[in-house]
Predict the structure of Group-specific protein.
Amino acid sequence: MREEILLNQDNPLQLEKLYRGNKPSFKAAFNALYPEIRTSPLAEGWYQRLNFHQDEFFWGTPAERSFVIAASLFAALLAKLPEIFSIQEDFFYPRNLGFIVGPALMAYFAWKNNITWKTRGLAIVLLAVAAIFINWLPRDQHSDTLILSCIHLPLLLLSMLGIAFHGGKWNRDTNWLEFLRYLGELVVMSGLLVLAGGLTTGITLGLFHLIGWNIENFYGKYIIVCGLAAVPIVATFITRVQPTLVSKIPPVIAKLFSPVALVMLVVYLGATLVAGKSPYHDREFLLLFNGLLIGVMALIFFSIAETDRSEGNRLQITVLFLLSAVTLLVNSIALSAVLFRISEWGLTPNRAAVLGANVLMLAHLFYVGLKLFSVLSKRSGLSAVGASLVVFLPLYTIWSALVVFVFPFLFGFE
């Protein structure tokens, strides 16, 4: 290895190949050889690269940690508002679930990105208007427009979080793929924290049970509720201060589950035909069909976001193209079923919401599929696929806002 390094000391490409072929041997040989070639700028760069030691125990600055603790306590306080002010839980949580965590995450990124106070003030006003509106809606657990508003409001808050993530900007230069990657890492880290918390909960309850103390009620009402409220905030903090901790997990998930989802979707469509199930007459099956569609679409978008960063191989792009094509077929079936139900039984808030969402997803999937095909035919690069992924995000935001604020009036709070 020493002779090979010495022979190729001015060839960066060959040095990289040697390094990737056997990293431990390369490092040992290079460090032994370094005193002889230290005058070379290339050698100096390699020496710094090989001997750089990052502090693995760096968990942000004291100000960052204090901010995260304060934000977590604030989220926990919001989660306990029903108990503090004797508000019925079935009224509070469906309407305000997004407000428990969303504002804290927005505040974190606003602080990290030094967003102007003018932008912060506008965000606070929008949050206040949304909170007042959703809690003002008539209390009717059977109101479709109320349920739709409660479902779409977190999506609207997610758009506001994306703007805060990018420093209060929303323009063509904003790299929204980075925000999608952050969401993927947030889901992974939140899942790990929940699993760890679940294990700790089981051990704690078991230990106290052994000494005759039944703390399940207290633990569930305070520790679990407050802990769940703090999970997204803590997970965000970890992904920001330790970016390498979970950054390698999402690409692995994307590569593993994309072909699995493709096979599952094809088999499911075949099984649906054999079983004689039809989304045209079975409302519950149509809802399940749309849920499946949303889940697979999320996997496609997540996979493309990771593939764009890793410059995925041709096989991976082919799998994503086939998955988008099959999902496009599923979307078309779901859309035709919704149109059929509207023509037979009229327009309702639920059917209008599903119709708009299906039209958006159909157009988006078609556009993404075209870009994936262009990559396969070598007419464009992966960057075009990434651009196609984010170009529809403003439309999803507008649609969510319409469902939240317009549908209740349009359908008479039905």
